[in-house]
Amino acid sequence: xQANDTSSVSVQIRAGVALIDGDLTVPPDALxxxxxxxxxxxxxxxxxxxxxxxxxxxxxxxxxxLDLLTPAEEEIDERTGEYRFDIARxxxxxxxxxxxxxxxxxxxxxxxxxxxxxxGAAAALIAAAERxxxxxxxxSRGGRPDLAGEALARAxxxxxxxxxxxxxxxxxxxxxxxxxxxxAQLVIVPGATHLxxxxxxxxxxxxxxxxxxxxxxxxxxxxxGLTRAAAS
Length: 232
Prior knowledge:
The protein is α/β, with parallel strands linked by helices. The chain has seven helices and eight strands, in the order βββαβααβαββαβαα.
Protein backbone atom coordinates (compact mmCIF):
# COMPACT_ATOMS: atom_id res chain seq x y z
CA UNK A 1 0.00 0.00 0.00
CA GLN A 2 1.38 3.40 -0.99
CA ALA A 3 1.08 6.58 1.05
CA ASN A 4 -1.79 7.85 -1.11
CA ASP A 5 -3.69 4.53 -1.07
CA THR A 6 -6.41 4.04 1.53
CA SER A 7 -7.65 0.69 0.28
CA SER A 8 -7.83 -2.14 2.81
CA VAL A 9 -5.35 -4.98 3.12
CA SER A 10 -6.11 -8.34 4.68
CA VAL A 11 -3.98 -9.37 7.63
CA GLN A 12 -3.71 -12.44 9.84
CA ILE A 13 -2.80 -12.12 13.49
CA ARG A 14 -1.55 -14.83 15.79
CA ALA A 15 -3.44 -15.01 19.09
CA GLY A 16 -2.12 -17.98 21.01
CA VAL A 17 -2.92 -21.07 18.95
CA ALA A 18 -5.49 -19.19 16.85
CA LEU A 19 -5.03 -17.16 13.69
CA ILE A 20 -7.57 -14.36 13.37
CA ASP A 21 -8.35 -12.37 10.25
CA GLY A 22 -8.50 -8.61 9.96
CA ASP A 23 -8.96 -5.80 7.46
CA LEU A 24 -6.52 -2.95 7.86
CA THR A 25 -6.88 0.51 6.31
CA VAL A 26 -4.25 3.21 6.77
CA PRO A 27 -4.76 6.70 5.29
CA PRO A 28 -1.82 9.02 4.59
CA ASP A 29 -0.35 10.64 7.72
CA ALA A 30 -2.59 8.59 10.00
CA LEU A 31 -3.46 10.20 13.32
CA UNK A 32 -3.96 6.94 15.18
CA UNK A 33 -5.17 3.36 14.90
CA UNK A 34 -8.70 2.28 15.86
CA UNK A 35 -9.04 -1.43 16.67
CA UNK A 36 -12.61 -2.72 16.27
CA UNK A 37 -14.03 -5.47 18.48
CA UNK A 38 -17.35 -6.72 17.10
CA UNK A 39 -20.33 -7.78 19.17
CA UNK A 40 -22.36 -10.91 19.71
CA UNK A 41 -22.74 -13.06 16.61
CA UNK A 42 -21.02 -10.51 14.36
CA UNK A 43 -17.71 -10.29 12.47
CA UNK A 44 -15.35 -7.86 10.79
CA UNK A 45 -17.97 -7.54 8.05
CA UNK A 46 -20.44 -5.84 10.40
CA UNK A 47 -22.18 -3.17 8.32
CA UNK A 48 -22.45 -0.86 11.32
CA UNK A 49 -18.81 -1.14 12.34
CA UNK A 50 -17.69 -0.68 8.74
CA UNK A 51 -19.75 2.50 8.46
CA UNK A 52 -18.11 3.92 11.57
CA UNK A 53 -14.69 2.77 10.39
CA UNK A 54 -15.18 4.53 7.05
CA UNK A 55 -15.96 7.79 8.86
CA UNK A 56 -12.83 7.40 10.98
CA UNK A 57 -10.68 6.77 7.89
CA UNK A 58 -12.09 9.93 6.28
CA UNK A 59 -11.09 11.78 9.45
CA UNK A 60 -7.51 10.51 9.12
CA UNK A 61 -7.46 7.42 11.34
CA UNK A 62 -6.24 3.95 10.48
CA UNK A 63 -8.70 1.16 11.26
CA UNK A 64 -8.34 -2.54 12.00
CA UNK A 65 -11.55 -4.57 11.79
CA LEU A 66 -11.17 -8.02 13.30
CA ASP A 67 -12.78 -11.42 13.30
CA LEU A 68 -12.42 -12.30 16.97
CA LEU A 69 -13.49 -15.88 16.32
CA THR A 70 -11.87 -18.33 13.92
CA PRO A 71 -14.03 -19.77 11.11
CA ALA A 72 -14.42 -23.02 13.06
CA GLU A 73 -15.47 -21.15 16.20
CA GLU A 74 -17.92 -19.02 14.22
CA GLU A 75 -19.54 -22.15 12.83
CA ILE A 76 -20.01 -23.55 16.33
CA ASP A 77 -21.15 -20.19 17.70
CA GLU A 78 -23.83 -19.84 15.02
CA ARG A 79 -25.39 -23.07 16.26
CA THR A 80 -24.80 -22.80 20.00
CA GLY A 81 -23.86 -19.20 20.91
CA GLU A 82 -20.97 -20.79 22.83
CA TYR A 83 -18.28 -18.21 22.16
CA ARG A 84 -20.01 -14.85 21.81
CA PHE A 85 -20.05 -14.30 25.57
CA ASP A 86 -16.57 -15.75 26.11
CA ILE A 87 -15.23 -12.33 27.05
CA ALA A 88 -11.81 -13.63 28.10
CA ARG A 89 -11.31 -15.21 24.66
CA UNK A 90 -12.43 -12.06 22.83
CA UNK A 91 -10.29 -9.78 25.01
CA UNK A 92 -7.21 -11.98 24.54
CA UNK A 93 -7.55 -11.57 20.80
CA UNK A 94 -8.01 -7.80 20.96
CA UNK A 95 -4.85 -7.63 23.09
CA UNK A 96 -2.99 -9.85 20.61
CA UNK A 97 -4.03 -7.50 17.81
CA UNK A 98 -2.75 -4.48 19.73
CA UNK A 99 0.56 -6.26 20.33
CA UNK A 100 0.73 -7.16 16.64
CA UNK A 101 0.17 -3.54 15.63
CA UNK A 102 2.94 -2.29 17.90
CA UNK A 103 5.30 -4.67 16.09
CA UNK A 104 4.50 -3.37 12.61
CA UNK A 105 7.00 -0.57 11.88
CA UNK A 106 4.52 1.65 10.04
CA UNK A 107 1.95 1.30 12.85
CA UNK A 108 4.19 1.17 15.89
CA UNK A 109 4.10 4.88 16.73
CA UNK A 110 0.34 5.32 16.26
CA UNK A 111 -1.71 5.91 19.39
CA UNK A 112 -4.47 3.31 19.67
CA UNK A 113 -8.16 3.44 20.49
CA UNK A 114 -10.49 0.47 20.79
CA UNK A 115 -14.04 0.57 19.42
CA UNK A 116 -16.26 -2.13 20.88
CA UNK A 117 -19.85 -3.05 20.08
CA UNK A 118 -22.06 -5.14 22.37
CA UNK A 119 -19.86 -7.81 24.02
CA GLY A 120 -16.90 -6.39 22.11
CA ALA A 121 -17.04 -3.34 24.37
CA ALA A 122 -16.10 -5.50 27.35
CA ALA A 123 -13.21 -6.98 25.38
CA ALA A 124 -12.07 -3.48 24.42
CA LEU A 125 -12.11 -2.31 28.03
CA ILE A 126 -10.14 -5.33 29.20
CA ALA A 127 -7.59 -4.64 26.47
CA ALA A 128 -7.36 -1.02 27.62
CA ALA A 129 -6.74 -2.22 31.18
CA GLU A 130 -4.08 -4.70 30.06
CA ARG A 131 -2.29 -2.36 27.63
CA UNK A 132 -2.58 1.08 29.28
CA UNK A 133 0.54 2.42 27.56
CA UNK A 134 -0.90 1.68 24.11
CA UNK A 135 -4.66 2.24 24.35
CA UNK A 136 -5.39 5.95 24.73
CA UNK A 137 -9.19 5.85 24.30
CA UNK A 138 -12.18 3.50 24.13
CA UNK A 139 -15.52 3.91 22.37
CA SER A 140 -18.45 1.59 23.13
CA ARG A 141 -21.51 1.35 20.84
CA GLY A 142 -24.50 -0.30 22.43
CA GLY A 143 -21.94 -2.06 24.58
CA ARG A 144 -21.88 -4.36 27.57
CA PRO A 145 -19.10 -2.76 29.61
CA ASP A 146 -20.48 -4.52 32.69
CA LEU A 147 -19.06 -7.78 31.33
CA ALA A 148 -15.50 -6.44 31.75
CA GLY A 149 -15.71 -7.18 35.48
CA GLU A 150 -12.77 -6.17 37.64
CA ALA A 151 -10.90 -4.75 34.65
CA LEU A 152 -13.21 -1.71 34.72
CA ALA A 153 -11.33 -0.15 37.60
CA ARG A 154 -8.04 -0.56 35.72
CA ALA A 155 -9.30 0.83 32.40
CA UNK A 156 -8.02 4.38 32.72
CA UNK A 157 -8.33 5.31 29.04
CA UNK A 158 -11.04 7.93 28.43
CA UNK A 159 -14.14 5.90 27.54
CA UNK A 160 -17.15 7.05 25.55
CA UNK A 161 -20.27 4.95 26.15
CA UNK A 162 -22.81 5.43 23.33
CA UNK A 163 -26.26 3.93 23.85
CA UNK A 164 -29.55 4.25 21.97
CA UNK A 165 -32.25 6.16 23.78
CA UNK A 166 -34.75 3.34 23.24
CA UNK A 167 -32.32 0.67 24.43
CA UNK A 168 -33.34 0.96 28.06
CA UNK A 169 -31.80 -2.26 29.46
CA UNK A 170 -28.41 -1.36 27.96
CA UNK A 171 -28.70 2.23 29.21
CA UNK A 172 -29.12 0.84 32.72
CA UNK A 173 -26.15 -1.50 32.30
CA UNK A 174 -23.95 1.35 31.08
CA UNK A 175 -25.03 3.62 33.90
CA UNK A 176 -24.21 0.87 36.37
CA UNK A 177 -20.49 0.98 35.47
CA UNK A 178 -20.04 4.74 35.47
CA UNK A 179 -18.79 4.71 39.05
CA UNK A 180 -16.29 1.95 38.32
CA UNK A 181 -14.81 3.41 35.14
CA UNK A 182 -12.31 6.13 36.07
CA UNK A 183 -12.81 8.28 32.93
CA ALA A 184 -16.16 7.55 31.30
CA GLN A 185 -18.76 9.66 29.54
CA LEU A 186 -22.23 8.38 28.62
CA VAL A 187 -23.99 9.72 25.53
CA ILE A 188 -27.54 8.62 24.72
CA VAL A 189 -28.64 8.89 21.08
CA PRO A 190 -32.31 9.94 21.17
CA GLY A 191 -34.76 7.45 19.66
CA ALA A 192 -32.13 4.90 18.67
CA THR A 193 -32.57 1.21 19.36
CA HIS A 194 -29.81 -1.30 20.12
CA LEU A 195 -28.61 -1.66 16.53
CA UNK A 196 -28.88 2.07 15.68
CA UNK A 197 -30.93 1.27 12.58
CA UNK A 198 -32.97 4.47 12.73
CA UNK A 199 -32.34 7.20 10.19
CA UNK A 200 -29.29 9.24 11.15
CA UNK A 201 -28.52 7.19 14.29
CA UNK A 202 -25.41 5.44 12.99
CA UNK A 203 -24.13 8.69 11.47
CA UNK A 204 -24.49 10.22 14.94
CA UNK A 205 -22.43 7.36 16.41
CA UNK A 206 -19.73 7.86 13.78
CA UNK A 207 -19.58 11.59 14.47
CA UNK A 208 -19.24 10.98 18.21
CA UNK A 209 -16.50 8.40 17.62
CA UNK A 210 -14.55 10.73 15.34
CA UNK A 211 -14.75 13.55 17.87
CA UNK A 212 -13.63 11.32 20.73
CA UNK A 213 -10.72 9.82 18.84
CA UNK A 214 -9.64 13.22 17.52
CA UNK A 215 -9.72 14.63 21.02
CA UNK A 216 -7.70 11.83 22.61
CA UNK A 217 -5.45 10.56 19.82
CA UNK A 218 -4.82 13.25 17.23
CA UNK A 219 -2.38 15.25 19.37
CA UNK A 220 0.10 12.34 19.36
CA UNK A 221 2.72 11.80 16.61
CA UNK A 222 2.17 9.20 13.90
CA UNK A 223 4.14 7.60 11.11
CA UNK A 224 3.22 7.65 7.46
CA GLY A 225 1.83 4.97 5.22
CA LEU A 226 1.88 1.20 5.23
CA THR A 227 3.29 -1.23 2.71
CA ARG A 228 1.76 -4.58 1.87
CA ALA A 229 5.01 -6.17 3.03
CA ALA A 230 4.62 -4.55 6.46
CA ALA A 231 1.06 -5.80 6.73
CA SER A 232 1.77 -9.38 5.82
